[in-house]
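User: Can you help me understand a structure? I only have the sequence.
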Amino acid sequence: MTDSTAITNQVEPGNGMASRQGLRTSIREFFFAPEVPYGLALCRMVLPVILLYVVLRRWSHAREFFSTDGAAAPLADNYGYFNMLPVPSGTVAVILMTLLVVFLVTMSIGWRTRVSVIGCLVIYTYLNMLDCLSTFTKYSVIASHVLLLLSFSRCGAVWSVDAWLERRKRADWNGPPSFPAWPRRLMQLLIGLVYLGAAITKIHTPTFFSGDQLRFWLMTDVNHSNPMGEQLTLYPVLVVTMAYTSVVWEILFIFTCWRGHGRWIMLLLGAGFHLGTRQTLGLHIFPWVSMVTYLAFINTRDVVRWQGWWARVRPEKKDFAEVRRRTDWYGKLALAFPATLLVAVVLGVELEHWIDPYGIRRQEGPHQLVELDRATVEAMLESNPVMRPEDLVHSLEMGEMLVGGYVIGHKSTFRQGEQLFAQCTLNPPHPDLMIECNLHDKENRLLDRVQQVVPRETFRANFLYVLHDALVPGEYSLVVRCGGQEVARRQIVLKPSKTVADRAPVAN
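Assistant: Let's start by predicting it. Here is the structure, written out as tokens:
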């Protein structure tokens, strides 16, 4: 063995060991580097404000959603599992909702932060799992995970009532404390994995990349009103582009959001994405809860830089150490927090009793249940109801050409000799259907009939009409029939061809 070989054999293990040590050091620095929890403090301050919007709207319905007095729908029952969660009485449900409101407020201001966050986590998650039909949603699941991570963090160490009291008590306070970064890192990984999982789901959904699934959501108000949704469906190429772009962004987010320009680019794209879903899909709470997690990407360096910028424009203030005064009233606040909870609970129960949202104590007596007739009950319990023909058709659109399986150039006015493409979009799931698209004149007389079989795996039926010169200019109708019934109708206006129009005399 030569000397060079011996040196090589000695160095290679050392290099491997150094690489492993470097990887361990990087992971340790990534998760456990000390930092001031500014980002988590912002999450703690903003998330309760968003959840309060929902909780306050449901507070008066606590008996209905979460108690034995109403119609609680536990999550376990919905999936056929054993329900281990007790369903409380109506009064207890009101108490829990009231406590949740108080905890959300105290969490936001950072008063008894750890107790407030844990209280929000337990009550919010518990109530969500008692109402899987409306309260338990995607945003509530994300919010519960964020609350869980905040409960392990020191998010109340800065920008909170607790931090202010701590500064007032300590004469030797020299700045905000630092803690390991792992709660913030886990929150970053949480939203990144949510996006990655959503992308994987979309990749395995064939109708997503064709734009069909997105078009159905854009054209419905099942969530809330979507001002831009229906307008976007007029541009199918744009819809398909949006589908591909969203998947690419969701995949790249977790790999590019950590540092440098990639962090801010991804966060800005994410903010635009979520605000867009609010306007196009009617999602009101989910975008804001998702963007709350973006605050976890704010680190100590960012806040120090912003504080430096702010210091240049704000007026100078006296040193806090010069005006700090030690007093003995802090100990008196020990009972203030539980006293606040007790007073809030009593007031909440009395307020719900006074409002009487269900009319139990009204002068004419409580509302009486009306017995349903037998036919209505049988229809509600029907296991396999037959869909009405009008419920099978989602939309009927007309245009001048067909691109990528979609009608584009939407219009209702045509000229003689032009082609008219009609596209009938069906609601999934649907059986094999015979669809007619017929041309009627102004007096509703049938002029032409076109039929086609639409198999159950197809969502669009396309029809082509050539508006030949034999058709007199005027008003016509396209009528879609399914199962022998009319299910859709669109009016069209036929004008003379350009050649005839050019030959027409012009009045002087």
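Now, to help you interpret it: The longest strand covers residues 393-403. Confidence is low (pLDDT under 50) at residues 1-13, 320-324, 504-508. Let me know which part you'd like to focus on.
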